[in-house]
Amino acid sequence: MFVSRARLLIVTLWVGSLWTIGYLVAPTLFATLSDRVLAGTIAGTLFRLEAWLSVFCSVSLMALMLLRTDDNNNPTRLKTGFILAAGMLACTLIGYFALHPFMAALRETAGPAGVMASDAKMQFGILHGISSGMYLVQSLMGVALLFKLR
C-alpha cells in the first residue's frame, strides 16, 4: 500500500509541475514581462529545474515500479506505467539535455540588442518547436501515467 501511494505522489508532483511551469508560469512570464530576454531567462531557469525534477521523479518512480511488494496492482498496468515513465524521461533527456544546448548556442549569437540573424532565428524556432512538441507529448504521457497508476 505504501509503495503504490508513493508512486502516485511522485506522479502527481511530476505531472503537476510539468503542467504548472509549462502551461501557466512560462506563458505568464512572456505575457507579463515587457523584456522578452528576461522572461526567457527566467523560463529557462524554471525549465532547467523542471528537467532535473523530471529525471529524479522518473528514476524514483521506475525504481518503485520494480518493487511490487505491497500492492495488488496489475503487473500489466505497472509495465505500461514503467514504459510511460521511461518515455517521459526520454522526452526530458532529448528535449532539455539534447536540444537545449543547441538553442542556448543560437541565443548566444544574438547581438547586443538581443537580435538574431534570420537563419539563426529560424533554426532556434525549429528547435523550440520540436522542444515544445516533446514537452506536450511528455505532459500527455504524464496524464496517461496518472490515470494508469491511480
Characterise this structure.
- The chain has helices at 2-32, 36-66, 75-108, 118-149.
- The protein is elongated and about 55 Å long.
- It has 150 residues and is mainly alpha-helical.
- It has one domain (2-149).
- Helices cover 85% and strands 0% of the residues.
- The relative contact order is 0.15.
- The protein is built from four helices and no strands.
Nutshell version of this structure?
With 150 residues, the protein is mainly α. It is built from four helices and no strands.
DSSP summary, beta strand count: 0
Q: Output the structural class.
A: mainly alpha
Mean of residue pLDDT values = 89
Which H/E pattern describes the elements? HHHH
Gyration radius from CA atoms, angstroms: 18 Å
Low-confidence stretches: none
Topology record:
Blueprint: H1 2-32, H2 36-66, H3 75-108, H4 118-149
Helix pairs in contact: 1-2, 1-4, 2-3, 3-4
Features:
150 residues; mainly alpha; 0% strand; elongated
